[in-house]
Fold:
Amino acid sequence: MEKFNIDKIRADFPILKREVNGKPLVYLDNGATTQKPSSVINSIVHYYADMNSNVHRGVHYLSQISTDAFEVTRRKVQAFIHAADDKEIIITKGTTEGINLIATCYGRAFIHEGDEIIISAMEHHSNIVPWQMLCDEKGCKIRVIPMNDKGELDMDAYSNLFNEKTKLVAVTYVSNSLGTINPVREMISIAHGHGAVVLVDAAQAVQHIQIDVQKLDVDFLVFSGHKMYGPTGVGVLYGKEDLLNAMPPYQGGGDMIKEVTFEKTTYNELPFKFEAGTPNIEAGICLNEAIDYINSIGMENIEAYEHDLLQYATEKLAEIPGMRFIGTAEQKCSVISFVIDGTHPYDVGVILDKLGIAVRTGHHCAQPVMDRFGIPGTIRASLAVYNTKEEIDILVAGIQRAVNMLV
Structure:
């Protein structure tokens, strides 16, 4: 871990210097959104101060340099996830839009009445509701991969869900509520053996795990910029070129067309066919800086550091009386969800906030997960590259204080 210097990394994030309720901020809600390094923040200012112009439209200087910068990000994303071509990289508003795009466009063209879609029991609502909407419209059916008490998918049950009606599998790489790392490469191979395509939700994986879409052989993969130290309002949909070409557009408007008459419209080539209208230009450009920041540390270094931090946090939290972890999979990253006997997650979260500690409480947009474990919600501490063991110690002391007040 030669490139890893935690003090230098923390100094890169201005917000970590601030106080909350008179206490130093301990930010452990990274599963919801990560904080931004100075390089990303400065890039946003630079765009509006020196480059602001629309992209893919103008011949003037500002439009040209903005377009070039926007397309640099596309190529940077291609390299980051090891896609075969930059035309397979669609710039979206985020993970949710990417999933909805596939549900709408692939679903409209290739999923029909009586067909089946497989999702898992640990999905975020964003990877449940779009498929339910498609099923309501098309008359198709969702089948759900069950999970065990540790929060691991039942792979035998998964294999048995397939039949001649199965058209698509949509599964999370890393559970936002449990931290489980799913065996997506194996799942993709099984699905392809049955002729189904696979969408992987990598929103909770791309900032923690090196992703190679070609090695995975995944058909579609989606993630968000704001969960990987980048801006909000920007994300990525990766799709295999042949599948994207076969799909109809998502929205109509500027930039996704070649020619428009009142009689007929011809659509633009990839990737622009799926990028109607003016994008979130500054966010698209600044996502490049976020990727550069991750690369400057090294994903292998990030994985090793965060794995060590997760182990430390799990061991320390386990010492608290009444602690019950929700999600104890053998393969985990970044997320620790738990409940404490005699307390409600919300009450613990409020007390921690008074101590300057930011965690997430509730169902984490994964209500079926909470139903599976028979609880209303959890306390979730989610880690990032700038968190420290000292912050974990502060969290543990804060929880102990909350327990003393509540129980």
